[in-house]
Structures are given as C-alpha cells and as structure tokens.
Amino acid sequence: MSQFVSDPEEFKPERWLENDGRLHPFASLPYGFGARICLGRRFADLEIQILLAKLIRRYRLEYHHEPLDYAVTFMYAPDGPLRLRMIER
C-alpha cells in the first residue's frame, strides 16, 4: 500500500482532500468506477429515491430537540443521533 500513499497505516483523512481543501473526486466510490462499475448502481439509486418518497408521503417528520452539531467526515452528517418523530399522515 505504501506505493500508493505515504504512511498507509496512519489515520490521515486530509490525504483525500485536494490542495484547495475540496474533497478528491475518487475519495468515495461506493459502486466502483469505470469498466467495473456495479451494474446495479442505477437500480440501487432508484430504490433509495422510492423509499424516501414513500416515507415522506406517508409520514410527517418532526424534530423538536436542540440544534444539531455536524461532523465533517467523508460526508456532512449529524454528530450524534438524529431523533426524528415520524407521525403518520
């Protein structure tokens, strides 16, 4: 692995950032890339969209807690549990 990155055993998330601080385009490739990309990628993306649409159509989501803190990792996400109340419409 050391032929590709320096200090491969050390946790260095900044190695995936460009020089200007932007995330490198190949930092996360959940479906692969190029000729060997997952054939089910489009199907998986559509399934996620359908699931979210059904949840939003059937439930009203409410959040009545303290403001969220965010952790900036490979994706921008809440730092801690996200406590939503789902109320059936």
Automatic annotation (TrEMBL):
It comes from Spodoptera exigua (Beet armyworm). This is Cytochrome p450. Its cofactor is heme. GO terms for molecular function: heme binding; iron ion binding; monooxygenase activity; oxidoreductase activity, acting on paired donors, with incorporation or reduction of molecular oxygen. The keyword Oxidoreductase applies. InterPro entries: CYP11_CYP27_families, Cyt_P450, Cyt_P450_sf. It holds the Pfam family p450. Belongs to the cytochrome P450 family. Keywords: Heme, Iron, Metal-binding, Monooxygenase, Oxidoreductase. Transmembrane segments: none annotated. It comes from the Eukaryota.
